[in-house]
Amino acid sequence: MTFRPFASRRATSSGEARLWSDNEGGFMAALVVVAVLVFCLLPVVQLVSVGASVVREDPAAAIGLLTGPSVTRATVNSLIIAAGSTALAVVLGGLVALVLATMALPTRRALAFLFVLSLMVAPQVSALAFKTLAGPSSPILNAVGLAPPPGTANPMLGFAGVILVMGLHHAPLVAIILASGLVRVPQALIEAARLDGARPLAIVGQVILPVIRLNILSAVLLAFVAGVGNFGIPALLGLPVGVTTLPTTVYRQLASFGRGAINDAALVSLLIALIAGVAVVASTVATARRAVRTDMERGLEPFVHRRAITLPAEALLWLVFAATILLPLASLVAKSLVPAYGVTLTWETLTFAQYTETMWGQALIRRAFANSLTYAGGAALILAVLSLLAAYALDRRLAFARMVILPVVEMPYALPGVVVAIACILLFVNPLPLVGVSIYGTAWIILFAYLASFLAIALKPVLAAVASLERDVEEAALMDGAGIAKRIATIILPIVLPSVVAGGLMVFLLAFNELTISALLWSAGTETLGVALLNLEDAGLGAESAALAVVATAVIAALMLLLEATSRYFPENALPWRQLCGGKDGG
Predict the structure, then answer these.
(1) Structural domains of the chain in order of their starting residue, each with its CATH number
(2) Whole-angstrom Cα distance, residue 326 to residue 324?
(3) Full DSSP string of 16-40
(4) Distance between CA atoms of 294 and 316, rounded to whole angstroms?
(5) Are 381 and 504 a contacting pair, CB within 8 Å?
């Protein structure tokens, strides 16, 4: 089978024309449009509608809430934390992306994998890891005599800790966004600069950075959005010392069960959506300008090969990752292996009781694991099927509407999770029309929110794969009387299956440890791993929460390793850590 770009295809045969006009295809396209509207647009419309009605009913009360001391303080805190964490994320993520893209490092792929692992680890796990590492009870620091004195405050609690952990957590996101621009830098420009005698730093500053400047701006804005909407890190490192942000304020409002709590939460969520929306729109407008056009005959490849330069850079990256990723995770493991708070880890104190008795012996933990597996697995499976149908419909039937449908699909993913959760609450708090059944307070509302939030993740690789397919074989099958279901099952699916699997597994990775959405939507019996960890930490069960975090992180790492081991079956750069390597090993 041959491939050619989507833009070059034209309806030049009666068979291809029939692909666009058969009734079955029209019915499937209608179903896809309905699914997109229900999952992605309806919750946001409901949130805006409720917020507007609250303002209309009592404008003074709405203005008073949004300008009151608690919301004002949370807004200022959110902006400060988002700005500080964005600065750190852009510096670290940008340096890592540039080093991996320009230097031939033997361990380049391993570095990229470890860096992205720190992003896939849940934010609350990262916060707990740093809190465990730096506190007076730190098993690792106590073992070497460097722990703060007993009774002193944990240095990770407060503004500095939240900014540090959030910046480190979002740095891989920045690197991935920059990597998507770096692969478009023509290698011919690099070779021409080297022929003119330009040194590597001059090439980076005068050739590479100007080409990717829009990607840099996009990375800054999206890291800022991620900082504004992050819930897990401020919840664990900010709330204990009274540092509130907009997402934690919404969480507290819903937890108060006071009169009008849901309306107050809706207004604050709209404020979060407004801040995030401005940044997302600015990013979209900036990247749509495409001021720099390049010839992509051959993309950027590592051009720094001298070991006198690459060896120190490689060693420095490993040192930084060891201090910011491996050491905090090791502190979690150490804390989960000691019997009580403040005990130093030795061969005599080492115990697996947190795993064999306490953690697995608690019904909450077992239920949380089962729920997270079920919700994440169900969302991944449903979105894998939906992404296949949506990609086919968008390519074959709805190409004229792609510029409208795709932004709608991207909207819930771009919005902070707290906004999506509140939108789902408002949508389902009353019984559904016609059937008279409410899914509020059930597992279905969590699953719905996952489907809305992660559809864009599942769709992106499948749409790219379907758009690259030639239509000749499908036209022949259609002439033989094959219906759309048979054509998709026997022709399209076998070819794009790796993309479908990659998209589904990425959804599972993101949903398995998710906290922001489930923290606002869970009820008795529907706790997820993120909720269980937060509850354990709030209850002062540090060793138990550490054990849970270790197991959850191990599951994510194992799945990522499985994806890496089978990466040859996936489209190029479908996996985010492969994007950092630009498809080249560079070793």
Answers:
(1) 14-41+353-573 (1.10.3720.10), 78-245+295-338 (1.10.3720.10)
(2) 6
(3) HHHHHH-HHHHHHHHHHHHHHIIII
(4) 32
(5) yes
**Number of neighbours of residue 439 by Cβ within 10 angstroms:** 17
Helix (DSSP H) and strand (DSSP E) numbers for the chain? 31, 0
What is the rounded distance in angstroms from the CA atom of residue 584 to the CA atom of residue 587? 8
Among residues 494, 501, 506, which one has the least CA distance to residue 176? 506
566 C-beta neighbours (distance < 10 Å), count: 14
Other beta carbons within 10 angstroms of residue 252's beta carbon come to: 16
Reading the chain (587 residues) residue by residue, the pLDDT tens digits are 333 443 334 444 444 445 444 556 677 788 888 888 989 889 989 888 888 888 888 888 888 888 889 999 999 999 999 999 999 999 999 999 999 999 999 999 999 999 999 988 889 899 999 998 888 888 888 777 777 887 788 899 999 999 999 999 999 999 988 988 888 888 888 888 888 888 888 888 888 888 888 889 888 988 998 899 899 899 999 999 999 999 999 888 887 765 578 888 889 988 888 888 888 777 777 666 554 455 555 678 888 889 999 999 999 999 999 999 999 999 989 888 887 766 777 777 788 888 887 677 788 888 999 999 999 999 999 999 999 988 888 877 777 777 788 888 888 888 888 889 999 998 888 887 766 778 888 999 999 999 999 998 888 888 878 877 776 666 666 666 666 777 777 777 788 888 888 888 889 988 998 888 998 898 888 999 888 888 888 877 778 888 888 998 999 999 889 888 887 777 776 778 888 876 454 44
Place of tokens 């720094």: 304
Closest alpha carbon to 328 in 514, 11, 550: 550
The answer to whether 18 touches 481, Cβ cutoff 8 Å, is: no
Task: From 482, 500, 499, select the one nearest 491 (Cα to Cα).
Answer: 482
The whole-angstrom separation of Cα 567 and Cα 570 is: 5
- Decide: residue 348, CB within 10 A, 0-12 exposed, 13-18 middle, 19+ buried: exposed
Q: In DSSP terms, which residues pair with 469 in a beta bridge?
A: 3
Convert 480-500 to b/e letters by CB count within 10 Å (16 or more is b).
eebebeebbeebbeeebbbbb
Burial of 458: CB neighbours in 10 Å, binned 0-12, 13-18, 19+: buried
